[in-house]
Amino acid sequence: MRFGDFPFLRYLPFLIGGILLGKLFPLQSLLAPSFGLLGSIWMTYLIFLIKKNLTFRPPFALLAYTQLLLLGFGLSLWSQKTKSESPTPFSTNSLGYLAEAQKFDSEKPNSRENLVKILAIKDSTSWKRGDGKVLVYHQDSLQIRPGDLLFISKIPEEISPPNLPDEFDYRAFLAKKGISYRQFIGKNFRVMDSLPHESWRFGMDRLRNFFSESIEAKVPSSDARQIAQALLLGQKENLDKTLRNSYAETGTMHILAVSGLHVGIIYLVLLFPLRLIKLKGKPEKLYLIAVIAIIWIYAALTGLSPSVVRASTMFSLFSLGQMRQRRPSIWNILAFSAMIMIAWDPDVLFEIGFQLSYAAVAGIVALQPLIVKWWLPPNRVLEYFWQLAAVSIAAQLATFPLSVYYFHLFPTYFLFANLVVVPLAFLIMAVGLPFLAFSWVWGVGDVLGWAIDGLIRVQIWTAEFFQSLPFGSLDRLTISISGMLLVWVLLLIWGNWEWGDRRKLTALFLLVSAVWIGEGIIRESRKPARSLWVFAGEKGLLLELQSGDQTLSWNQSFPLDQLGFSIDPNRIQEGRSRFPEPLKAVFLDSIFRVPGYDFSFSVDQKRIFWDKEKPKSIRYFQGNKVESGQIAESIVIDETGFRVIF
């Protein structure tokens, strides 16, 4: 087995490299030249490929890899260009807008949520074409349905960027979905018209809503309905926070995100009759085409998430290979599907779901066979659970660097939880698919709904049991990008040690280890001995003093319910405690003075005063403005805050 046996696996890094170059150097002036150069190289490549009698033969591999690099670079620039073209802005003269509903209402605690697409904007003199999407919240008794044309007599607000460092970027999250605005409209809108009910554009939304209503009607318990919506239809928007945490903290959250596991279960169920009937020739091909069609219908039904598209593409390629009596390499299929997705949308490369999905499959393919060899079970039952455990261990090893990097969490009992939850998910899917198909049949839907309810209750109980165990999860973990690379290199060395070039593998390990150690040394050398974090909001003020390993905090009416998503991400990233000690101050002459730390502050004046030691630098959260050198005797606390380095 050689790396050269996997051509698409060789091509993928160059395409990704081009995408990353486009992100590092987002120069729109290079868009046309990059595609022009790509076309010229392609023509040169084609000419030399056709005219075989030429004496000079160029390095074809170099030309091919250069084309992939330029293609990735050009696609990245093109994607940035199209997405940077902001929707039609609203002006002070705007009186309202005409919009088309894009989905069915989603219930929220005090309102209903919907997504509308702006069609036209009305001002004091005329109408003009509009663009963009708005996340609206209304309180009307009537449901808004896909295709409804609404006139909304209020102007939406743009979604604000995060004000505090390391805070979740909700604006960027919605921007990936094309959503630029949000608005509470209450009852200030009118339904002007509606598309015909049989319109094909929202056919999948109507089908999904029909299945969702069937689950609501036939599955008895509320918790089971939420899990069924997520597991069968990919609808996690209304998932209870407690339920979400139970699955997340036990390493079984992947069950609730419709992914390759779910598509794989459908694929196995659909192929089972083929094994019994043993079709050959044209009937077999027609059946496999039907299987591919059903898989992609399910992918569209569940929202075409990156993991579902990856799995659907891979199983489609497997089916096409089966039609031609071939067994294509899993590595080629995995890389080819990634290239298709990246070429279609370069930004998918930076989505967490895409990264986790491909890392998990790569880990399973590379490491599961090695793990299985650790033990030879004495019977088939133990062998089944050992195979399942090996898959879970391999996937967790490959994805835990990403989990730590993004979520700062590692589930301690993931292996034992998955041994129960995954088989239950298979049973739920096996019952759920017939339920979706026959829920309209009297009696059948009720029986299957009760079965789904019972299975999901057992699954929920399992997740909550493992969550309740001592040390159920390790949280507040951090890892650098070089640390992630080091972990993956170690896994790569382990997976290739028997048949790979051990000298090259050792050299790769030493190189990445040197980068990781060097990054750590640089980070520690730049870490200040003392710094003051000032977090300001509309409702209050929070001061956190970091002195060595000690963290002291002063909270002046800063909302406690905002600490988790506004302040805690920064605490984790900077290594500060979740529960800092109180910062003690003396109130004197209307100013709070902090003994021993050379600063004092006035809440009334919103100002911090320096005593003997002035700061070395001040970095503002908004705009990344930095002050250094001659620092003034005091500083006004702005609307977001700043970091002071002593």
From TrEMBL:
Membrane-spanning parts: 7-25, 31-50, 253-274, 286-309, 329-344, 356-376, 388-407, 414-441, 447-466, 478-497, 503-522
Instruction: Describe the location of the ComEC/Rec2-related protein domain by residue ranges.
Output: 231-498
**Under which name does UniProt file this protein?**
Competence protein ComEC
Q: Which UniProt keywords apply?
A: Cell membrane, Membrane, Transmembrane, Transmembrane helix
How does this protein lie in the membrane?
Multi-pass membrane protein
Annotated DUF4131 domain ranges read: 36-187
Q: Which residues form a coiled coil?
A: none
> Taxonomically, which superkingdom?
Bacteria
For this protein, the record's NCBIfam families field holds: ComEC_N-term
The cellular location(s) given in this protein's UniProt record come to:
Cell membrane
